[in-house]
Each structure stands twice: as structure tokens, then as C-alpha cells.
Backbone:
């Protein structure tokens, strides 16, 4: 931390002040109040952004044409709120600082009167060391989420480093960190090549990332019924438990990528069964290394994790899952310990 008093006291009287030579990251806490950054999946979680299901949910519109919103079952709003409150209570008991998105109600963008996925605060922004990269959402019913996210970031004092623009699309659910210098990003129906180019450039520049690994994911045309329908985000099928341990759903991942994780990065892979994958078993949120929150009912994978000395906290997010996603989607990390 820069000592402002010493800096001021060392001035040469009668001479113009010289430029400050400290780096942006050295000044981050001084200028912006906190050392914003979450360049990790497993470093101790300190601060998050979340959103409780609200009036933007629009049950009537979803019931009329759920497929347009890429869902097959309409969630129960009250149950979804109860499950959300339970998840947030666990985060609170861990001492994690919680910020709420609090968009105007009902929150929606220019293309759709409702938004069943605005609770997924992972997607509209990613916080690297120094500040936020604002996404550019792909689906019409999520357009506008990035605006709410960006406004909240500035309100709480998190600087915005970059906003995806032009023809690029990018969503934060496609980002999975191996460590602070190596990151995997899914190319999918929600994140295109131009979005990847823009975000990779910022991560490797500002975030000092050494490697960005692109992972191609299967998509869909019309059929979204399981087991078809593809996967919009990498975090649906790949979740880090510790620096050397991860959950994977192999049918949705390139074999070359699995070999890369095992052989090049020396990460032990725990394979998730189709039954547990339907409960989004890979979509975990790590509170710290080997201490995770996972959707309840994933008994097979929970046993495998416990054999690997993982503290597994099972939380019911079945109503979340109906709109696609789980604990990882519901939590937007703002600050994590860097490991």
C-alpha cells in the first residue's frame, strides 16, 4: 500500500509535482477502496454480487412459450426464492460480503418483457485483478443484464476495465480459472470468437494471464430436451474444486481438453454421471480450496468428492436448475484470494 503521507512529505517545494510511478494495481485500494479481483475459482471467497428472483420472472410469459427462453420446465417462484435465501445464508455465515444487484423492477431488456435468468449474476461480468470486464449477452431475453451489472459495479466502487463490444458476445459462465495465470473459456452459443478475442486480450494484458485455453462446447438448433440441447457455458460441465482437482462431464468436453487438464496441468478429474449432470453437478461454487457448495441430490459425485477430502455442502437449487444453472451461476465473485 502506498504511504500517502511519506509521498507528500517528500515533495520538493517550489517544483511541480512529478507523475506518480506506482502501478494501477498498487493504487487500486487507495483509489477504489478495495483490491477488486477474482482471478481464481478456489481462492477464499470474500465478496460476491447476487440477485434474488423478482418480478422480472414473468411466470405467465414463460408458461406460454418456455422453449423461446430455452427452458423445458417453469420454476416455482416462491420455491426459487426460498432456495436462493438458503444459499445466501450459507454465504453470509462464511463471512462473505454480499452485494445485491437490485435492478429496477421488473428488470428486463429491450427484447423481452421478462428475464428468467437474471439471477445468474456470474454471466454479465467477470472481475479480474484490478476490475471488471463487462459482458455482452447473447440471448434476447438476457440483453440488458450487463447494464444493470455495470451500474452496480460502479455504485459499489469496482472499476470497469473493459466492455465487450462490436460483434462480440461473451458471458461469464464460460470462464473457469485453473489458477490466476491460466484460464479456460468456452466458445458456445453464448460466447463467440470475437468476444473471446476481446476478453483474452484484456486478461493477458491487464490480468497478466499467461494462457487462455479455448474450449468448444456443443450447442443446439431447436431441440433443447435432455440429453440434447448442448451446453451454453463451460461451468455447466467443468468445475474446479482445488488447484489439482476438478469435476468434469466428458460427453460435453473435447477429449483433447481432458488430456490437457490431466497430463499438462496435472489436475485429477472426477467424472460426473449423466444422472448427476442433470442436477448440474459440475456447477459448484468453491468457498475455499476443497470446500464447495453443490446442488443437493448429487450423491454419487458427493461421495467421490468426500473420498478426495472435500468438504461438500449440499444445497437444493432444483428450481434454479429449471432455467439452467446452479450455485456457480448464482454467485458473481468480486473478490477472491489469489492462489
Residues:
Amino acid at each position: 500500500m502506498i504511504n500517502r503521507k511519506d509521498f507528500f512529505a517528500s515533495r520538493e517545494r517550489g517544483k511541480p509535482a512529478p507523475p506518480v510511478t506506482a502501478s494501477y494495481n498498487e493504487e487500486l485500494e487507495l483509489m477504489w477502496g478495495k483490491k477488486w479481483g477474482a482471478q481464481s475459482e478456489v481462492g477464499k471467497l470474500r465478496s460476491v454480487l447476487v440477485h434474488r428472483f423478482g418480478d422480472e420472472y414473468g411466470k405467465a410469459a414463460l408458461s406460454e412459450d418456455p422453449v423461446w427462453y430455452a427452458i423445458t420446465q417453469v420454476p416455482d417462484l416462491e420455491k426459487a426464492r426460498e432456495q436462493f435465501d438458503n444459499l445466501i445464508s450459507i454465504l453470509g455465515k462464511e463471512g462473505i460480503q454480499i452485494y445485491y444487484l437490485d435492478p429496477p423492477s421488473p428488470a428486463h431488456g429491450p427484447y423481452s418483457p421478462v428475464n428468467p435468468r437474471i439471477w445468474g449474476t456470474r454471466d454479465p461480468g467477470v472481475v479480474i485483478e484490478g476490475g471488471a470486464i463487462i459482458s455482452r449477452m447473447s440471448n434476447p431475453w438476457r440483453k440488458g443484464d450487463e447494464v444493470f451489472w455495470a451500474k452496480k459495479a460502479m455504485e459499489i466502487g469496482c472499476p470497469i476495465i473493459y466492455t465487450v463490444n462490436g460483434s462480440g458476445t461473451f458471458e461469464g459462465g464460460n470462464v473457469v480459472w485453473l489458477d490466476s495465470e491460466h484460464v479456460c473459456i468456452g466458445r458456445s452459443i453464448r460466447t463467440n470468437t470475437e468476444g473471446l478475442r476481446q476478453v483474452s486480450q484484456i486478461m493477458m494484458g491487464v490480468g497478466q494471464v499467461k494462457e487462455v485455453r479455448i474450449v468448444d462446447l456443443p450447442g443446439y438448433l431447436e431441440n433443447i430436451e435432455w440429453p440434447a440441447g448442448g451446453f451454453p457455458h463451460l461451468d455447466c460441465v467443468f468445475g474446479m474444486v482445488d488447484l489439482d482437482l476438478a469435476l468434469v462431464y466428458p460427453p460435453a468436453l473435447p477429449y483433447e481438453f481432458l488430456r490437457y487438464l490431466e497430463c499438462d496441468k496435472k489436475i485429477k478429474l472426477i467424472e460426473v454421471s449423466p444422472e448427476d449432470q442433470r442436477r448440474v453437478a459440475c456447477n459448484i461454487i468453491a468457498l475455499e480450496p476443497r470446500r464447495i457448495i453443490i446442488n443437493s441430490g448429487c450423491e454419487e459425485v458427493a461421495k467421490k468428492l468426500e473420498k478426495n477430502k472435500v468438504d461438500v455442502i449440499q444445497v437444493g437449487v432444483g428450481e434454479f436448475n429449471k432455467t439452467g444453472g446452479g450455485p456457480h451461476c448464482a454467485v458473481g465473485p468480486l473478490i477472491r484470494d489469489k492462489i
In short: Residues 185 and 214 are 5 Å apart (CA to CA). The first strand starts at residue 45 and ends at 50.
